[in-house]
Design goal:
By secondary structure, the chain is an alpha/beta fold. The protein has helices at residues 15-20, 67-73, 102-119, 133-145, 168-178, 190-193, 197-205, 215-230, 252-261, 285-301, 319-328, 336-349, 356-364, 369-377, 386-395, 398-424, and strands at 2-4, 21-29, 35-43, 51-56, 78-83, 126-131, 151-155, 183-185, 212-214, 239-244, 267-272. The chain has a 9-stranded mixed beta sheet, with helices on both faces. Strands 8-9 form a two-stranded antiparallel sheet. It is globular.
Length: 442
Amino acid sequence: MTCLKPAPLKTTCESQTEYRIACKTSYFQTFDGSELLYRNWKDCEATATERVIIILHRGHEHSLRYEDFAMSLVDPRTSVFAWDARGHGLSPGKRGDAEHFGVFAKDLDWFVKHVAEITQLDPENIVVIGHSVGAMIAATWVHDYAPNIRGMILATPAFDVRLYVPFAKPTMRAWQKARPDTVIRSYVRPGMLTKDAGQAADYANDDLVSSEISMRVLLDMTDTATRIIADANTIHTPTLLLQAESDFVVNNSAQSRFFDRLASPVKRLVTLEKQQHAVFHELERNTTYQVASDFIHELFERDIGTTRPDFRNADRTGVTYDEHQRLSKPLPFYCWKRALFATQRLVLHTVGRLSRGVQIGLETGFDSGVSLDHVYENKPAGTTLFGPILDRVYLNAIGWKGIRQRRVHLQEQLDRAITQIEESRTSPDESIRILDVATGGG
């Protein structure tokens, strides 16, 4: 871990640099057809882009607030992109809202693919920088989609938002069940973000900044953060994590837990002294700019960002192998989980048989085709009046919900593949065939 003291603030920039850098505003279409705005800063005299940096703004904000930072990263070889996330800035959608937090990560996946396509660069030439909620989106995307990017920079990631009000989270969970579309306003005031009075005033007077956030998104982000921190040992992307020493918005302890579990072969933790949460808009922001720039330079010039672990022996070594070995060991006789599992087995073979799904699973196997047909149909059935109730509990198990969601994703991919074939075929008489290979465990 490194602790940095602030560098003096630069108050001027060379007019030549300002003249050479152009900013272009465009839109890209994400997975659900929404058109999200993004900006692209690049050197006017550069003939081709060799490196790409993508900036993800803080919650409530938008891409244009990061223009100074973006311009500091542009050089003849480097092009910088930044988006307005859905529900933010000039992008469509209810302010601060989405169906769930994972939607933002999926949007990012589509955005990165769009940037890679228009720049004709491989993902390994891309670095993603996320700030606060943007850092949470980046970390979630890297964990869930495992992109082969050069590296990522997480600045004051919102793994654990300070809510200050006692029992705030359980209260919101109870309220959200009754009012799922509830929107709350952020308690964060500009003075809690930065000591720079000018930047605080700009934030307060920015018409594109919205204080609203969906309670659904906030709670789902909290749950996602818990999952990502617990599973950080599966993330191998080179990472720089920037902490603000005087952060009133998020808890640094959660960031430290994430960093300690991170499996990245190259990882840095830098604590920015005297800085508050908005490290890209602080009085000492040039320090932040320089730390980020140095890490990006290291990723490309020393080529450390292309180092990846070899997973060909993952069945014999590694984090998931160790977990498998631990879970495969018999539990000691005094362990309460052993008694719990024995009770569950007894219930399944007795009362559980009233459930149609449990009955099918016991007869043919819970991963059999017949069992999965029942899960996909998702219609509770059973014997006696109590059977369908048990079957509904069975069908609502998180594993079966995931199986049904997998079918949705498979249908989306098939629709996309069919559309692509239809657009590329030379004759309308050419038929499209789908081969379903029943490979079982394969």
